[in-house]
Design a protein that fits this description.
α1 runs parallel beside α3. The strands form 4 sheets. A 6-stranded mixed sheet has the order 5-4-3-2-1-16. The relative contact order is 0.16. The chain has a single domain, classed as Nitrilase/N-carbamoyl-D-aminoacid amidohydrolase. It is α/β, with parallel strands linked by helices and 289 residues long.
Length: 289
């Protein structure tokens, strides 16, 4: 049964202390619930943004001991909401870190987890360089789950640049796509809005993207501008700045169905090959089929 519900994206400026970030998380989630949101999403790395390797090792722990996980689970249960921690760093059993999203139900149960698949290994202008793969182990599985009568597809930040992930989730029935992020200011100013709107249009789906924003304790600067986009590509809510904030919008899964009926590109897609004479013909990666 599809029904209309309110979704919130929580914009944060996470520092290096998971304990302090948990306090900010609680305040902002309560604000979102107070505005009537029953699905609430926080940004990538809600728990902490830490560049120093030794400080990361000292701050991050397993899921069962993590303060962000415990805080979120309790809030979801108390407020009776679906609470989506966009991601936080979780120590895996093998000693490696995962950049992990977690979804908690209104009873506090863990409904789904998703480990970020695509690692942000880039060299930008002005000497800005990142190697996420040096700290985190990438996930290998796309995830779709049900929330309030809608089907929710998971992604985290850099995943946004890989449309095949979102197409696979849309083909699996996702009518709400999620992109919690900590986009750098440099890439956010250039690409954030257009990529989020493109993923919504391509898939006839809502996109909810909670962001980190501003200058962080570890020296990085993120773009902010949390967005909620409808299946026609219209921005229906935005935090048009980089300060901590909450934005809320109505999600009606029937709008996704309507968009897909108008432009049935998910159904119209056809298999094809590339000409044999092409130089360095690519091996398809992340294809839906």
């Amino acid at each position: 049964m599809m029904g209309v519900f309110k979704a919130a994206a929580v914009q944060m400026r996470s520092g290096e202390s998971p304990e302090r970030n948990a306090v900010d998380l609680e305040r902002l989630v309560r604000e979102a619930a107070g505005q009537g949101a029953t699905y609430i999403q926080t940004p990538e790395m809600t728990g902490a943004l830490i560049r120093d390797k030794q400080a990361r090792a000292a701050s991050f722990t397993s899921e069962d001991k993590d303060i962000i996980v415990a805080t979120a689970r309790g809030l979801a249960r108390e407020l009776g909401v679906f609470l989506h921690i966009g991601s936080t760093a979780i120590l895996r059993a093998d000693g490696k870190l995962a950049n992990r999203a977690l979804l908690f139900g209104p009873d506090g149960a863990t409904l789904a987890t998703y480990d970020k698949i695509h690692m942000f290994d880039v060299d930008l202008d002005n000497g800005e360089s990142w190697r996420e793969s040096a700290a985190y182990e990438p996930g290998t599985e796309a995830v779709v789950t049900e929330v309030a009568g809608a089907k929710l597809g998971f992604a985290v930040c850099y995943d946004l640049r890989f449309p095949q992930l979102f197409r696979t989730e849309a083909l699996a029935g996702a009518d709400v796509l999620t992109v919690p992020a900590a986009f750098t200011r440099q890439t956010g100013e250039a690409h954030w809005h257009v990529l989020l709107r493109a993923r919504a249009i391509e898939n006839g789906a809502f996109v909810v993207a909670a962001a980190q924003g501003g200058l962080h304790e570890d020296g990085r600067e993120t773009y902010g501008h949390s967005l909620i986009v409808d299946p026609w590509g219209r921005i229906i809510a935005e935090a048009a700045h980089d300060e901590p904030a909450v934005i809320v919008a109505e999600i009606d899964p029937a709008q996704s169905l309507a968009a897909r009926k108008k432009i049935p590109n998910l159904k119209n897609a056809r298999d094809f090959t590339i000409n044999a004479g092409a130089v360095d013909a690519p091996r398809l990666r992340g294809a839906a089929s």
